[in-house]
Here is the input.
Amino acid sequence: MTASTRKLPTARDKLIDAAMSVIRAKGYAATSVDELCAAAGVTKGAFFHHFPSKDSLAVAATGHWSEMSEAMFGAAAYQRLDDPLDRILGYLDLRRAMLRGPVAEFTCLAGTMVQEVYGTHPEIRRACGASIGGHAAGLQRDIALAMKRHRIRASWTADSLALHTQVVLQGAFILAKAKGETAVAEASVDHLRRYIELLFRRPAKAAKRKS
Amino acid sequence: MTASTRKLPTARDKLIDAAMSVIRAKGYAATSVDELCAAAGVTKGAFFHHFPSKDSLAVAATGHWSEMSEAMFGAAAYQRLDDPLDRILGYLDLRRAMLRGPVAEFTCLAGTMVQEVYGTHPEIRRACGASIGGHAAGLQRDIALAMKRHRIRASWTADSLALHTQVVLQGAFILAKAKGETAVAEASVDHLRRYIELLFRRPAKAAKRKS
Here is the structure.
């Protein structure tokens, strides 16, 4: 995916694309401005024309990351399902299906950066928090609707379950990196799906036929 | 906790302690050898006497991290509980109780490092994978025993559930960093505990009295 698919990408677009891919491959601190320029195919002058610093590119890339993610999940087929519980499970099935290919291509820019910069770069931390929190907010709405529709009275909230889905995905990326394989991440998404089915008392078999 | 509590710490011990705390606070790539020496109160000469590189210190620190973790959880009160399911829930209760104070003090050295270096530093990645995997193996044994004792026939394995607990903890650290608070991490450990209670068909109320 590129920063802009409708018009010719500008130097700014190319730098944002480069940031999303290089930072996910080697982390934020290890990525230099020179490397970002080389990956984007732009000059250092062009870099500093668009961004005062590497930090400001990181913040812009996180904002773009959120927009891309919103567009992608917003257009996904599961969004057309009538039952909000089916949409939540459909979301998880899509997340599981996305665990393919090189790790740097399915992991999260925000989660990768915040892991190392949370204490040293408050602006990047805020951008990452907003990105992950904004994504969870979309799920929270469907979880709240599903609780109402399926008459679930619970000691947990829609908000905490939405955040828990992001916890599992972020943790699954780390275990995939540590083990050098994606099966562990897929298995964790399966555990999360099973948990949500249990919370909503949906028989696992019916759910299996669906997925 | 220090690298050695029984004898006077050596320069090597001090460097390992410094690595565990500085890397968890600011990430691996952002941590310089100079900073590690300053935090340890040792000379650069002493550093290179003990470690050929920052990478080799990171590998040694990860090994020490695993030993510390094994000693701490091995000595925990929950290990004396008779029912392996109680030991698993006791482990989660302890992990939840540990989510206190500054983020850098309760997060995981291995998870922090592997997030950024997985593709660039294969030796560190292997050490982190061994650390997380070794910790999960201890839980796997108790989960397997609990499945037998509670006659659980399941589509999931003890191994995948043990790894899932580590996924949730690693992800909880990331959300705590992103949101700048620990409540989100505590809520995720609660979700994980509820999931395990549901899998083992343990009434949540009985479990609540216990915790």
